[in-house]
Amino acid sequence: MIDEVCEGEARAAGKACAQRLVESGAALRRTSALAAPSPPVDGFALYFTEAGGKPQYPARAAIVRCVEAAAERTFAEGGQVEAREFAALLSSTASKCLRHLFFAEREAARIPDMSDSSGLQAIGKVGIVGAGTMGGGIAMNFANANIPTVLLDTTEAALQRGLDLICKNYAASAAKGKLTAEQVEQRMGLLTGALEYTALADCDLIIEAVFEDLELEKEVCTQIGRVAKPAAIIATNTSTLDVNLLARAAGCPERVLGMHFFSPANVMRLLEVVRADATAPEVLATVIKLAKAIGKTPVVSGVCFGFIGNRMLEVYLREAEFLLMEGADPKQIDAAAESLGMAMGPCRMLDMAGVDVGAKVVIERAKAGELPADPAYRAVVRKLFELGRYGQKTGAGYYRYEGRTPIPDPDFSAAARALGELHGIACRTDITGEEIVERLFYPLINEGLRILDEGIAYRPGDIDVVWTAGYGFPDHRGGPMFMAEQIGLAKIADRLRHYADMRGDAFGYWTPSSLLTQLVETRAPLSKWARTA
Fold this sequence. Notes:
Elements: H1 10-24, H2 41-48, H3 59-72, H4 75-90, H5 93-107, E1 126-129, H6 133-144, E2 149-152, H7 156-175, H8 181-189, E3 191-194, E4 205-208, H9 214-227, E5 233-236, H10 243-250, E6 256-261, E7 270-274, H11 281-293, E8 297-301, H12 309-326, H13 330-340, H14 346-353, H15 355-367, H16 379-387, E9 400-402, E10 405-407, H17 410-422, H18 433-453, H19 460-470, H20 480-487, H21 489-503, H22 514-522
Parallel strand pairs: 1-2, 1-4, 2-3, 4-5, 5-6, 7-8
Antiparallel strand pairs: 6-7, 9-10
């Protein structure tokens, strides 16, 4: 497999090796004439076959069959086996889904109304306001890319906690052999702590990563705007707030956009880049290029509550709560979501992320008058917050916990059903897994279509990248928009109407989006859809 190990540029080394072979008159060495060594098939097969728990990826079992054929058959027979396996895989659903995502990720970085000539800025130094878990994780991305970074917080104690957590994360990577001690020292050396905003004055990019509170974030953006140099890009890590308001608070709206990292920020590869109304093209282009440099997959979103991912997540969580109030239990709901391939069901996910975090978003939106006039809306998460059941961190949320192991909790189920009774929701015992999947995912798909129709996302594939890269949606299904076409848009519209009849639709939860109705009526494929204006 290896003829030579060398230093220097690979192409030049390869040419030199080939030249030496020619000059020495070396005989041709055909792969087909080589004896195949016996591979360690037992361990290899255990890792790759369906028995390893990955039947949704048929290529794994095909790999084993190809290796076995290479070892046990003639070269020609092995080639025939590979050709048959390749042809079968090429037409498989998993292959179609994964190829779709491969191209969708690359397409997501192309902005339709922005020319390739948009000027790019050099980002030589980054500042981050907020040294908490999110701010520290964001800082690690830039240190990993060899970019000097200033981490700012309001107190020495908070700042030191943040730096200590970063050091602990790097030490954990070093203990696993992923980094050397020298690399840890080098990356920590790129990080500088600060307590005053003036330390950000020479930064090319400044990111606010403080607690999700509109007034606080407006104040932080104002402070950043006062000290930032004229060419600096200012970004907000908000996951739900109005980036246009924050851009105006900074005083230079053309230099402001959203950079929504996902937690843990040093691990998750998705970056929602939020284009505000006044964001300059060169600012957007610079951040998209920077995202790739720090190992992120960028997807551009317009401004709305929750952008692409969290706006759709809200619909998903809303319906999970109604199912709970109707009598489904968390384990049943999570099992149905995970049967589709989700990395984690909605109840386990909220318990892990923090019920208090999710509840505060709902509570703040209620104060701002942004929720439906439905007293039952997200009543479960608000009740859990009231009871102090914040998830894993408090040992109880949708489940109770022994360590990190979720245990079904009859007290929670009784509380959820009591909420249902309070809001006039009938308790049922006939809720099936199929109904749960439809009620969780069909409104989510419908919301994705609204997002496309409103111009928040440029392409259906952008939404698929957001959900597979940031929310645990199974890549072997291609993302929610790609899956919608596999299910059939007409069926989705029909089932939405079915649940509207069954549950009522006073608040428009089940109303098909105008784009869904249009695509069904015209029988146009969603994959070919593109905005015309």
